[in-house]
Design brief:
Blueprint lengths: L7 E3 L4 E6 L2 E6 L2 E7 L6 E4 L3 E2 L1 H9 L4 E4 L5 E4 L8 H11 L2 H29 L2 H20 L6 H18 L24 H24 L17 H24 L8 E3 L5 E3 L1 H16 L1 E3 L6 E3 L3 H14 L12
Parallel strand pairs: 1-5, 2-6, 5-7
Antiparallel strand pairs: 2-3, 3-4, 7-8, 9-10, 11-12
Helix pairs in contact: 3-4, 3-5, 3-7, 4-5, 6-7, 6-9, 7-8
Length: 342
């Protein structure tokens, strides 16, 4: 039996969630909008002005179901730390590995290689559907990224791995708009940067990456790993470095392809964005609903996992990769196998 983990996303401002026996009662302006069985929910993500009763927060925490608070526009604010599951020996092994420069470098190389390979596959797939001139540029970018993949085994420090990954990222983002087939005059990308978003593509990437990072943090906690102790991303207070590590190889597969699909199918249009004074861009509430609905559908799509050789929902990839990493940290696997999309 296989269960696809469900996350409840609430973004209607003024919504109130509270516990009603074994259900989550959803109210807007004191009017009941839904009753959701608690056992169907594996986590709650709320945007902006959304209230949760203390009893609901306590119940979710007892059942290892995290609550994540984001700003109205999708910026991460806070996340409940539910009681840790898993074996304390796993976390001890994780901390020991993070203190071992050679092992940290080996894991960082493999995570970066997985990300770059999936970026290359994304570019080549788009090239098959693009016009001749765009296809040539996409294939050239894929070849250039392949060169960077070949450089990864030669890196001697994690900083060098980050530098190689950064070079590949610049190649990837330079041609990213060429994978769009609709509204290119509006959906432009100056360069990849975080916040504040100054173009529609960055606004989309920031939002979808926040959702994906939350999924990866949940996967780490479910396995018993410490989400803050990573290998590729530098350790910083308040940063879920390991969740960001797991997210790297899934970005092109889940997040980037979701954005390309929504734009190319015209499910997202210029009407779903707000241009603010100062040159910043945000996504409307309806636009965020469209994105979240599409991501929910994507999670149910099945792909053949190259290691398990079984069809797996995209929504469970982060959990599988977290378990594979845990096996490596325990010494059950000689190397961490990144997810490679076909």
């Amino acid at each position: 039996m296989r269960q696809l983990l469900n996350t409840l996303y609430i973004q209607t401002q003024g919504t109130y969630l509270h516990l009603d026996t074994d259900n989550i009662r959803v109210e807007v302006e004191r009017t009941k909008k839904a009753m959701l069985p608690l056992h169907h929910i594996e986590g709650v993500v709320v945007f902006g002005n959304v209230l949760l009763s203390p009893f609901l927060i306590h119940r979710l925490a007892r059942e290892h179901k995290p609550v994540t608070w984001l700003s109205e526009h999708g910026r991460f604010m806070a996340r409940t730390e539910t009681p840790m599951s898993g074996n304390v020996l796993l976390r001890t092994a994780q901390h020991a590995c993070a203190g071992n420069a050679a092992r940290t470098l080996a894991i960082a190389r493999l995570i970066a290689a997985g990300k770059l390979q999936n970026q290359k596959v994304t570019l080549l797939r788009a090239a098959r559907e693009a016009e001749a001139d765009d296809a040539a540029l996409l294939r050239q970018a894929a070849r250039d990224i392949n060169v960077q993949i070949a450089c990864l085994p030669l890196t001697e420090t994690v900083d060098e791995v980050r530098g190689t990954e950064g070079t590949a990222a610049r190649l990837y983002w330079e041609v990213f708009p060429l994978m769009l087939r609709q509204s290119r005059d509006f959906f432009w990308l100056s360069e990849r940067h975080r916040r504040p978003a100054r173009d529609p593509i960055n606004a989309l990437l920031n939002f979808v990456y926040t959702v994906l990072a939350n999924d990866c943090a949940s996967a780490c906690q479910a396995v018993g790993l410490d989400p803050q102790i990573g290998f590729l991303h530098a350790l910083r207070p308040g940063r879920s470095s390991l969740a960001l590590d797991l997210m790297e190889e899934l970005r092109p597969v889940i997040a980037d392809r979701a954005i390309l699909t929504l734009i190319n199918r015209q499910q997202l249009t210029p009407r779903d964005f707000v241009l603010h004074e100062g040159g910043t861009v945000s996504i409307t509430e309806e636009g965020r609903k469209t994105i979240l609905a599409h991501l929910a559908e994507r999670r149910r799509e099945e792909v053949m996992h190259p290691l398990t050789a079984r069809k797996t929902p995209l929504g469970l990839l982060s959990h599988i990769q977290a378990r594979l990493l845990a096996q490596h940290l325990r010494g059950d696997r000689p190397h961490y196998p990144p997810y490679l999309h076909r």
